[in-house]
Every structure is written in C-alpha cells, then in structure tokens.
Task: structure prediction
Amino acid sequence: MEKINSWKWVPENCGDSFGRMNPLEFLEFMKDKSIGFIEGEEGGLERGYFPKFNVTVAYHRAILLANYE
Result:
C-alpha cells in the first residue's frame, strides 16, 4: 500500500514540476469547463465554483481508484 500512495501523475515531456501559473489565465483557459482532482483517502467531495468563468473545480477522495495486487 505504501508504494501506491507514493504514485503521482507527471505528464510526458513536462519534467517534474509545472512552475507557477497565473490563476486568472488558468480560469480563462478553463472557461465553461469542470476539472477534478482525485486523492486516495477516505472522505467525500469538496468543490469550488467560479461563476464569472463558469468553472467548477472538484476535489474527490476515494479509497479504491485502481486495481492492484
């Protein structure tokens, strides 16, 4: 279980970090969309809504995200 909890997603050809981003540029880019982040812990759902951009950001917590041995 320890190994699974240490996994992280890193897109190809992007290095290990994205650096800083401008929040307003991000919201403009995501206009009229939803984005979700998933973490493997017990819990529920938290979300934020930005009406000026019609953007929803949701943070999901789920115990079982994938099959593993």
